[in-house]
């Protein structure tokens, strides 16, 4: 990846150096003026001429002569032409697709089939070899990628259930010893796990499924219980809030009643005082 990034950096630098200042594009048929500034032949248009075949360089304003007023007769730059060739070559390399490697011939190829025995994708040449040579054909059965289906995946998974210690021995048992905890074949069970607690892979798989299902059920139950507790908590909060609102209203009513009674008592006392003063 770093090499590709480096190549792209070089391409960007070259394009920057080879950009025509008139059209702001990569130079096309670059022509060099006597002031040593270069432009595309098509960009040196007659409207740049002052009179006859003379023109001012757009960059440095030096007056230069265009032979017969024909830009194609201006000298070419071998240096710029070489850089342009290099730029085009680098772009071609950068745009080439990076092919994956065939697991059989280990060469970058277009991969067309999947071989279970090779444990990966193979190219067309290797696929044909798998079918032509009897030594390979009897054991290798490549599957073309187009018709590759779920059943092929399941078949591949089953072929992976082979003992790593004894070639082509199918895994049949699961050793439950704390120091083992692995799947073994019949030969391993006899030689290395004779007195260990062994279970058939089917039973061990079912035990694992039961454990997983039990864990999932516990999580679901806990989730349900937490949901119920959360619901109950919300209901309690709402109930308490309602009680608080009722208590506030009761307090407000009591305050209003006390204020009313105090006002009435004050009026009565004021009337008594007035009567006393009149007497």
UniProtKB/TrEMBL annotation:
Record-linked PANTHER family: BONUS, ISOFORM C-RELATED, MEIOTIC P26, ISOFORM F
Pfam families, A to Z: zf-C3HC4_2
Ranges of residues in domain RING-type: 20-61
GO molecular function: ubiquitin protein ligase activity; zinc ion binding
Coiled coil: 216-257
Name of protein: E3 ubiquitin-protein ligase TRIM56-like
Record InterPro entries: TRIM45/56/19-like (IPR047153), Znf_B-box (IPR000315), Znf_RING (IPR001841), Znf_RING/FYVE/PHD (IPR013083), Znf_RING_CS (IPR017907)
Transmembrane segments: none
Gene3D superfamilies named among the record's database cross-references: Classic Zinc Finger (3.30.160.60), Zinc/RING finger domain, C3HC4 (zinc finger) (3.30.40.10)
Species classification: Eukaryota, Metazoa, Cnidaria, Anthozoa, Hexacorallia
């Amino acid at each position: 990846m770093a090499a590709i990034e480096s190549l792209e950096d070089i391409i960007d630098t070259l394009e920057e150096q080879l950009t025509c200042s008139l059209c702001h594009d990569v130079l096309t048929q670059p022509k060099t003026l006597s002031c040593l500034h270069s432009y595309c032949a098509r960009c040196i248009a007659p409207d740049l001429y002052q009179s006859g075949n003379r023109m001012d360089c757009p960059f440095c304003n030096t007056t230069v002569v265009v032979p017969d007023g024909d830009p194609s007769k201006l000298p070419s730059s071998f240096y710029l032409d070489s850089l342009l060739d290099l730029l085009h070559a680098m772009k071609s390399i950068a745009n080439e697709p990076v092919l994956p490697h065939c697991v059989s011939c280990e060469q970058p190829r277009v991969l067309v089939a999947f071989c279970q025995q090779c444990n990966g994708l193979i190219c067309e040449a290797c696929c044909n070899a798998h079918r032509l040579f009897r030594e390979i054909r009897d054991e290798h059965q490549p599957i073309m990628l187009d018709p590759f289906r779920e059943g092929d995946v399941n078949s591949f998974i089953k072929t992976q259930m082979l003992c790593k210690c004894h070639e082509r021995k199918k895994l049949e048992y699961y050793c439950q010893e704390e120091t083992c905890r692995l799947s073994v074949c019949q030969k391993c069970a006899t030689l290395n796990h004779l007195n260990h607690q062994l279970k058939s892979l089917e039973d061990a798989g079912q035990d694992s499924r039961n454990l997983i299902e039990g864990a999932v059920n516990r999580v679901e139950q806990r989730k349900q219980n937490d949901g119920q507790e959360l619901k109950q908590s919300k209901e309690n909060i709402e109930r308490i809030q309602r009680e608080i609102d009722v208590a506030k209203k009761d307090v407000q009513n009591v305050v209003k009643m006390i204020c009313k009674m105090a006002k009435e008592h004050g009026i009565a006392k004021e009337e008594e005082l007035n009567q006393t003063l009149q007497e």
